[in-house]
Amino acid sequence: MNGAPLWLQAFVALLAVDLYQYLCRRGQHRFEVWWRLHKLHDAPEELTVLSTSRSHIADTMLRQVFGPGLLVYALGLSANAVIYGSLLPAVLLDALGHANIDFPRKRFRWLSYVFSLPNVHALHHTPTHDRVNFGMSLMIWDRFLGTFQMPDERPCQFGTSDRRFSELGILAQHLDAFHLRPGSSNALPSVERIRSGPPDAGPADATTDSI
Ligand SMILES: [Zn+2]
Predict the structure, then answer these.
(1) I need a surface site. Which of 13, 16, 139, 176 has the fewest CB within 10 A?
(2) pLDDT in tens, 18-45
(3) 22 lies in some domain
(4) Cα of 108 from ligand 1 centre, angstroms
């Protein structure tokens, strides 16, 4: 896309990289060998802004560095287009999406149909609804491809069904992806437990701020 206006290149970067992230995340919840690398991100039973950077180092390098790098190179996008169209939105929206806040509510709720905001990404982090809302910055690919779900309330239970994995330290969780821990299990969570109904949502607790 050399020669195209910056705004157009930035828009293409936003859509293309977010589609790539969507497909990767969907694949990580579909294929066991890929789930091993993503499990670490979904394991914590608390969801905060710090969860944003909590990823397996191999997942970070493959999914967030080399993959997008090759994609924008193949598309011929300029560095400025990647920064303004993909990196900045991804950093800001990924951090916001993991924030422990009940947002958006009521009149701003429509924003969650477009962007990956706290309520919709929180649903992805629940043990029962981890196969919805895969988008990193946007929700449009989830909506087009049938994996979007809007929670009625902010979920309050997070993590995977593998409580034993959740209780491990960060180093043990890294090693677990390669079966270096005795008794480790990287089996995908059972599809049967995925429910189509609303998640277990409780009233906003004392640790959740409302906007
Ligand atoms: Zn997340």
Answers:
(1) 16
(2) 999 999 999 999 998 899 899 999 998 8
(3) yes
(4) 21
Give me ligand 1 centre to Cα 182, in Å: 27
Is 37 inside a domain boundary? yes
Instruction: Find out whether 119 and 152 touch, Cβ atoms under 8 Å.
Output: no
Give the other-Cβ count within 10 Å of 46's Cβ.
11
Strand partners, 209: 101
Please name every residue paired with 115 in a beta bridge, in sequence order, or none if there are none: 138
Question: For the chain, what is the domain count?
Answer: 1
pLDDT, tens only, 147-201 = 999 998 888 889 888 888 888 888 988 988 887 666 666 777 754 444 445 555 4
Contacts of 26 (CB under 8 A, 6+ apart): 131, 134, 145, 147
Q: Is residue 206 in some structural domain?
A: no
CA of 130 to the centre of ligand 1 (A): 10
Q: Do the beta carbons of residue 59 and residue 37 sit within 8 Å?
A: yes
Host domain of residue 57? 6-181
Residue 199 lies in a domain: no
Distance between Cα 124 and ligand 1 center (Å): 7
How many angstroms separate the alpha carbon of residue 4 from the centre of ligand 1?
Answer: 33
Count CB neighbours of 150 within 10 A.
14
Asked if 55 and 40 count as a contact pair (C-beta separation under 8 A), the reply is: yes
C-alpha of residue 43 to centroid of ligand 1, in Å: 10
